[in-house]
Recover the amino acids of this structure.
């Protein structure tokens, strides 16, 4: 968590020091701010507005991913669970309802509670990082991670056999691959996007660097 915050360690109000400098240079008791001081006071407000739009995008993407995952799982449990798989592309792709106690794609079935805690920690980290977010691509990537994590965490909490031990509903079954769900897909897509952004040198605060 500390490393993640170090990466986007930009202040919430950029150029804060410039405002104090301008104030110090103004005539004492003048009662009116200079144009330069007014501009410097407006800059933090504009920065907050830009950050607010990125945060709104993050939560919109997260809500969309979460809603798709939740609706798809409700339909699978109601219409597909306990029935024969539905073939979509011959033997290459099926809809096959299963319950997964492990992590994404069925790995780590013996560590259900640990994966539940990890998912909760990821959500907390993303919420904290959102305070200093100034990049649209990073907002989309973090939104996908947040929506996917919330989708699977909902199963962990509310599905049997119990709270924090619930089994996740999986149903997308490609041939020769593990069964997964839309939440897993959102997490993977968000992770891939973050890797691509990192290779391009784009940081969550909107700055671009070259190593």
């Amino acid at each position: 968590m500390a490393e993640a915050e170090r990466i986007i360690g930009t202040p919430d109000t950029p150029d804060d020091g410039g405002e104090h400098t301008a104030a110090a240079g103004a005539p004492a008791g003048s009662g009116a701010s200079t144009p330069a001081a007014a501009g410097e006071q407006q800059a933090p407000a504009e920065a907050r507005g830009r950050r607010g739009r990125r945060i709104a995008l993050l939560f919109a993407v997260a809500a969309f991913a979460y809603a798709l995952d939740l609706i798809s799982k409700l339909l699978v449990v109601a219409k597909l669970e306990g029935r024969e798989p539905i073939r979509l592309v011959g033997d290459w792709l099926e809809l096959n309802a299963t319950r997964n106690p492990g992590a994404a794609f069925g790995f780590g079935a013996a560590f259900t509670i640990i994966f539940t805690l990890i998912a909760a920690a990821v959500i907390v980290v993303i919420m904290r990082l959102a305070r200093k977010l100034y990049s649209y691509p990073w907002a989309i990537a973090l939104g996908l991670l947040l929506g996917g994590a919330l989708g699977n965490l909902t199963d962990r909490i509310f599905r049997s056999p119990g709270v924090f031990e619930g089994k996740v509903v999986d149903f997308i079954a490609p041939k020769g691959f593990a069964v997964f769900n839309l939440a897993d897909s959102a997490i993977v897509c968000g992770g891939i996007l973050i890797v691509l952004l990192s290779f391009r040198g784009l940081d969550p605060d909107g700055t671009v660097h070259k190593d």
